[in-house]
TrEMBL record:
InterPro entries: PhoU-like_sf (IPR038078), Put_Phosphate_transp_reg (IPR018445), UPF0111_domain (IPR052912). It comes from the Bacteria. Belongs to the UPF0111 family. Pfam families: PhoU_div. This is DUF47 family protein. It comes from Streptomyces kasugaensis.
Length: 206
């Protein structure tokens, strides 16, 4: 029977899983926003803000654990990068919802629903992948699929920009809508950053 002389701190795995589950909550609120009228959006934004605060708490818990742990399950830099990228996703999703409310957007342009569907799928995959960090198993398909989704998000984003600049919208409305779709694109990029960090960890641990 083998004994580990330097036991590794395992609570990081639970923290990453909790952060990813919270991101799924955020993606569901984005989906809810699509079908909501203007009067319901403020309440959705409040719930998204609460989810973003919960994400911040989870991130701070990881950093606190990182600073107080002598032994970590993998490189400290990778733990920091993974926690930060997960936090970025929630920040971008919360910002997008908040801007829809603050800008009093009456109707989101066609294509935003596709952006949000990609984010929702990436959120599900990320939540499924985080528990597998314990064993470093069944992760390859995860980062391949998230990278594919990010490429899909890029294409949707470009089509949205072309739509916004086709002359249908006035200049002020273009500025508002462009900022929202750009932030959703940044959320897709952040999902890819998480997947790339997981790939880096898996390669180092193999």
């Amino acid at each position: 029977m083998r004994f580990r002389l330097t036991p590794r701190e395992t609570s990081f795995y639970d923290m990453f899983a909790a952060s990813a589950d919270n991101i799924v909550t955020g993606s569901k609120l984005l989906m809810e926003l699509l079908g909501a009228d203007a009067s319901a959006r403020a309440e959705i934004a409040e719930r998204m803000r609460a989810a973003e605060h919960a994400g911040d708490d989870a991130t701070h818990a990881v950093f606190h654990q990182l600073n107080s742990s002598f032994i970590t399950p993998f490189d400290r830099e990778d733990i920091y990068n993974l926690a930060s990228s997960l936090d970025d996703i929630m920040d971008f999703m919360e910002e997008a919802v908040d801007l829809v409310v603050l800008y009093k957007v009456e109707e989101l342009p066609k294509g935003v629903d596709q952006q949000i569907e990609v984010l929702a799928r990436a959120a599900e995959l990320t939540a499924e992948a985080m528990p597998n960090l314990r064993t470093m198993s069944n992760l390859t398909e995860y980062w391949i699929e998230v990278n594919r989704l990010e490429n899909q998000a890029d294409q949707i984003h470009r089509k949205l920009l072309a739509h916004l600049f086709n002359g249908k919208y006035d200049a002020i409305e273009v500025l508002k809508l462009k900022q929202i779709v750009d932030i959703l694109e940044e959320a897709a990029d952040a999902f890819e950053h998480v997947a790339n960090t997981v790939e880096t960890i898996a390669v180092k641990e193999s």
